[in-house]
Amino acid sequence: MKASPPRKLGPFEVAPIGLGCMNLSHAYGAPPPAEDGERLLNRALDLGVTLLDTAALYGGGNNEKLVGRAVGHRRDDYVLASKCVLDMDGTRRVLDGSPEAITASLDRSLQRLGVDHIDLFYLHRLDRSVPVEDSVGALARAVEAGKIRAIGLSEMSAVTLERAHAVHPVAAMQSEYSPMVRNPEVAVREACERLGVAFVAFSPVARGLLAGGVTSAAYAKGDIRAWMPRFVEPNLTHNLIAVRAFDALAGEHGLTPAQLSLAWTLARGEHVIPIPGTTSVAHLEENLGAAGVVLSAEVIARVDALFAGDAVRGPRYPAEAQAQIDTELLPEEVVA
Fold first, then answer.
1. Active-site residue flag, 58
2. Which member of 28, 58, 78, 317 is catalytic?
């Protein structure tokens, strides 16, 4: 991992594969015991991970507390990223991109993390009731105040990126990207490259589908995949056909499916930085093994062919959640 060339993220250089911390506290069933999460975070840093990604939303703030508690004493070893706009008000999830809400959310995040500044602070989603210029303006003032060092956007379009970047330089755009999820290829990945913005790919192993983690719709209580159209029947059975072919291709080349998916993601551009998440130290070590994998053009083409056409059925999100997503849709997702 340490021998792989670093990638530029705003004013920082980071290892090519970061760590998404969400599922240590949130989203995929019961989270692991806190001590296991702390062990995994420290192991990630030991292995050369230099980008840790959390958010106010994750575990209602508990993920930020976990990160601060586990690796706060190693603050100089990593770039710390968190997010605002999506947050929790007690047990209620809220979306508020107003400058006042952003400022308050940032202060709470700083307190939970136990730090005086956050390296990269994202607008987690676009609040369509607030001009993005106003939301970015609040972050720009936080940069001036020394509370954050760089600004990011999450799940937003190339058009929104251009508007935000005109107010203050954007260091990173975070969006879902993997061999199965190609929405960034419509416009925003290219816009990031043109503007010098890092593209941070979350769910680069397709929420476990490309890591051997999903074989049926028998999800644990609290697993968000249980309401995601691609992960439930009848779509899941159809989608697993391409997944099994992908698994076989990985085996042909001495890779695990997760390693093939991550190597494919890394190959999409020097500005692309995947941040897979995991609750397993063994899977963490497996994922990081992809950093040194160089895929041939022939293998990349075979991966692309596996997921072309009708290979993947179902939208990424149900309609209610999709309403909060500003990323471009693929042609087959657009309803006239």
1. yes
2. 58
Q: Domain 7-209+268-293's class?
A: alpha beta
What pLDDT shows up at residue 336? 46
Mean pLDDT of the 176-181 span:
98
Q: What angle do CA 243, 244, 250 make, to 5 degrees?
A: 90
Selection from 302, 275, 301 nearest residue 290 by Cα? 275
Q: What is the mean pLDDT of the chain?
A: 96
Where are the chain's structural domains?
7-209+268-293
Characterize the bridge pairing of strands 118-123 and 272-274: unpaired
| Residue closest to 80 by CA, chosen among 118, 106, 37 | 118
Under DSSP, is residue 274 helix (H, G, I), strand (E, B) or coil?
Answer: strand
User: Which is nearest to 199 in space by CA: 186, 210, 190, 212?
Assistant: 190
Q: For residues 31 and 29, what is the distance between their CA atoms, to the nearest angstrom?
A: 6
